[in-house]
Design a protein that fits this description.
Layout: H1 2-27, H2 31-39, H3 48-112, H4 117-179, H5 183-196, H6 201-213, H7 217-230, H8 235-248, H9 251-264, H10 268-274, H11 285-293
Helix pairs in contact: 1-3, 4-5, 5-6, 6-7, 6-8, 7-8, 8-9
């Protein structure tokens, strides 16, 4: 409210000179006319009354802030005194109740028959030993459970570490086998893979492909049969069997295994049309019939 009154008084006292000055400045932009306007002012732009009012308002504001600060400090002191009083009362009540408890416990002990301090001491020791034994047994069980869990996790971590090492070694061997141009070195890489993972059907079938290139069809057939014993639905094993039987001249067996391979994966279709190992089957009627029967082969 005082700020509102102050704003009104300032606007009233300064309104007319400022309005006259702004009007004359807008109408006469030249320097001489502005100077003449200033010289013709009849009253100052401010009055001592306004200045005095502002000073009184500032003084009153400081007085109010000091009074408010004093009141706030008084409230804080009162609250601290109340807190101290509550603490003292709580301590007094606690001591009183403690003595009441001692008196009640003594009465109960007299009623029970523990008249001797030694009996009380022995009984307390017995109860304490029983409780301590229970706690020790409970914590021993927890520790054994924790040790068992840690042992299992350690074994799991160790197994994972060994599996990771084995996987890394197998990947390096597969990369080496893929980059080898010498068939004997490639077969050695596959043998090493089979030493690390005996039931690796993929390694068996790729080794069969390599030995077939060495003109060892019977060896390739043996490897493919081992792969099918592990995974009866291995399409690559059937495909390699067809190639091996083609080299041996067993065209009926070759067509049968090609049919099995195509039933498991249609991706062998393009490969069998361009594989040089199946060149001998190009004029074999069952082979041509197989191609015609398969969906999309006619196109």
């Amino acid at each position: 409210m005082p700020r509102l009154i102050l704003a009104i008084l300032c606007s009233c006292s300064l309104g007319s000179p400022l309005a006259a000055f702004s009007a004359e400045s807008a109408s006469t932009p030249s320097e001489d006319q502005r100077q003449a306007t200033i010289d013709n002012l009849k009253e100052p732009l401010y009055t001592p009354f306004v200045e005095r009012y502002v000073l009184d308002e500032l003084k009153q504001l400081r007085t109010d802030m000091a009074a408010q600060k004093h009141e706030l400090m008084q409230q804080v002191v009162d609250r601290e005194l109340k807190s101290v009083d509550r603490g003292v009362a709580y301590a007094t009540d606690t001591v009183t109740y403690f003595f009441y408890l001692i008196a009640a416990a003594t009465s109960i002990l007299v009623m029970v028959g523990w008249t001797s301090i030694r009996d009380i001491k022995d009984r307390v020791h017995t109860l304490a030993d029983e409780e301590i034994s229970k706690l020790v047994n409970a914590y021993e069980e927890r520790l054994r459970a924790i040790e068992t869990t840690l042992s299992q996790k350690t074994e799991h971590i160790e197994a994972n570490r060994e599996e990771i090492q084995l996987t890394q070694e197998l990947q390096s061997l597969w990369l080496r086998a893929g980059q080898e141009t010498n068939l004997q070195s490639k077969i050695e890489a596959y043998d090493h893979i089979l030493e690390l993972r005996k039931n690796d059907c993929e390694a068996l079938t790729y080794k069969a492909d390599a030995v077939l290139e060495l003109n060892e069809p019977q060896w390739a057939i043996n490897l493919c049969q081992q792969a099918l014993a592990i995974d009866p639905d291995n399409g690559h094993a059937f495909y390699q069997l067809a190639c091996a039987h083609t080299v041996l001249g067993n065209f009926d067996e070759a067509v049968h295994h090609l049919d099995q391979a195509l039933q498991r994966s249609d991706s062998y279709r393009d490969q069998l049309l361009s594989d040089p190992a199946l060149e001998s089957l190009r004029e074999f009627d069952p082979y041509l019939q197989l191609i015609r029967i398969e969906p999309g082969a006619a196109s």
